[in-house]
Structures are given as C-alpha cells and as structure tokens.
Design goal:
TIM Barrel, binds 2-phosphoglycolic acid, 11 helices, eight-stranded parallel beta barrel, 8 strands, alpha/beta
C-alpha cells in the first residue's frame, strides 16, 4: 500500500443502503490522489454494496473489519478470508481492540487470522495497543510488542513485509482522548524497530498507522509525526465530509 494509508473503520454502522449513499457522497468530494492509499472497512454485510458503489475507482480499497480464524466450516455467523476476498476485500483488520476486549479474541487467534489473510493475498492490518491501566502501569511498549510479535508469529519474512500495523491505544478509541503526536511517534518507533528485527531492512517500508479519536482537526499533526504512516479512523469516518477532509489531509 502506498503511504500514508487512510483507513475508515465503520464498525457496526452503515448497512448496505446507507453505505451506498456514503460512497456516492464521498466520491463526489474526494479527488483521487497518487500519493496515498484510502481504505473503506464497512460491516461484512455492506461489503458488496460498497464494492459496487466504488465501481472502477481502483484508488480506493475495500477492507474487511474482521475474518474468522478458520478457513471454512460450521462457524455460524462468521466470514472466512476467502469470502472477504471474493466480496472484493484487499485488506483486513486483525486484532482490533474491540475484537480483543469485547469478543475475547486471543493473540493466537490474531496470528491465525494474519496467516490466513496473508495466504489469501490480503493485507492484514494488525492492530495493537495498550489499555489505560496498562499505560498507567508503564506497560505500553511491552503490551504493543507482545501483540505485534504474537500476531505475526506464523508469517514468513516476506509475509510480514506485506502487512500493515495499526497502533491504537485502547484508551483513545472512541473516547475523544487522542495520543499526542509525540506519544504516538514514540510507540511507532518501538514498533518499527521490532519490525526491522523481525523482517530485515525491507520492514522500513511497512505502514504503521495510528488510530484512536482521530478527527479532521488532529489528523494532519498526527500524520506528520515521525513514523506515523497513516490513520485508522472510526467515528470521524462515518460522515463523508469529515472523512474526505481526513483522507485528503
Ligand atoms: P475512533 O475509532 O476513531 O472512533 O476512536 C478508531 C478505531 O477503533 O479504529
């Protein structure tokens, strides 16, 4: 993915009808640019509607918010990596904090999801980040690095090079509290160092996104911070005007 990467995570918002309307409104505002990657991650049920609404706009990638950790089978309600790819996804979020903390997703499950997504040729965006309690206990780096190593554990060096990482401190997600650009940059630098150790010099090109209460006011300063290679945006990506301002930062 060409950086910076601007990824919208709609979470459980915008069903097929609203998603189509969103894409029309966003495309009317957003001018395609060669210097960045824009990703839309709708709910699974809206993925085909978004793909159809995007038409031939290849500059905007479709992403899945989640996939299941098994390739297929009797897993009622789940979406496989192959199905997400068939619906047009090129990217998949893995290990989002809501998957970890609301649905109890383990590091092992994130590793399987990253491996399945990579094998399918999708780009996993592996999400890592500490809770407020862990931050206050001085465990920010330790937690993020543990989640990073665990999530990438089953990947070959080449596969690691085709992943992206999102640092999303849990205390900043949906709370209106954003990490300062300097705070985000400090953790991103630690993540970059680990990626270089895991996958060699090519890891300098891996996109590391920041997420957590990003909005049109703070986007530019965050994306200008050292090592911040893009933004993963929840709430502020639900309005076409605001998302256009962020994606055009
Ligand atoms: P937020 O969510 O922008 O609403 O804080 C970010 C995310 O959860 O990816």
């Amino acid at each position: 993915m060409k950086g910076p990467v601007f990824a919208a995570n709609w979470k459980m918002h915008l069903g097929p009808t609203e998603a189509r309307a969103f894409v029309a409104a966003f495309l009317a505002r957003y001018t395609p640019r060669e210097d960045r990657t824009v990703v839309l991650c709708p709910p699974a049920i809206s993925m085909s509607a978004v793909r159809d609404a995007l038409g031939d706009r290849r500059d905007i990638l479709l992403g899945a918010q989640n996939v299941y950790s098994e390739p297929k089978g009797a897993f009622t309600g789940e979406t496989s990596v192959a199905m997400a790819a068939d619906a047009g996804a090129r990217v998949v979020l893995v290990g989002h904090s809501e998957r970890r903390h609301v649905f109890g997703e383990t590091d092992e499950a994130t590793a399987r999801k990253c491996a399945l997504a990579s094998a399918q040729g999708l780009v996993p965006i592996l999400c890592v980040g500490e809770t407020l309690e862990q931050r206050e206990a001085g465990e920010t780096e330790q937690v993020s690095l543990r989640q990073l190593r665990a999530g990438l554990a089953s990947l070959s060096r080449e596969q690691v090079l085709s992943c992206a990482i999102a640092y999303e401190p849990v205390w900043a997600i949906g709370t209106g509290r954003t990490a300062t650009p300097a705070d985000a940059a400090a953790v991103h630098t630690v993540i970059r160092r680990e990626l270089l150790a895991l996958a060699g010099p090519g890891a300098a090109g891996i996109s590391i996104l920041y997420g957590g209460s990003v909005n049109r006011e703070n986007a530019a300063a965050l994306v200008a911070a050292l090592e911040v290679g893009g933004l993963l945006v929840g709430g502020a990506s639900l309005d076409p005007e605001s998302w256009n301002a962020i994606a055009s930062t």
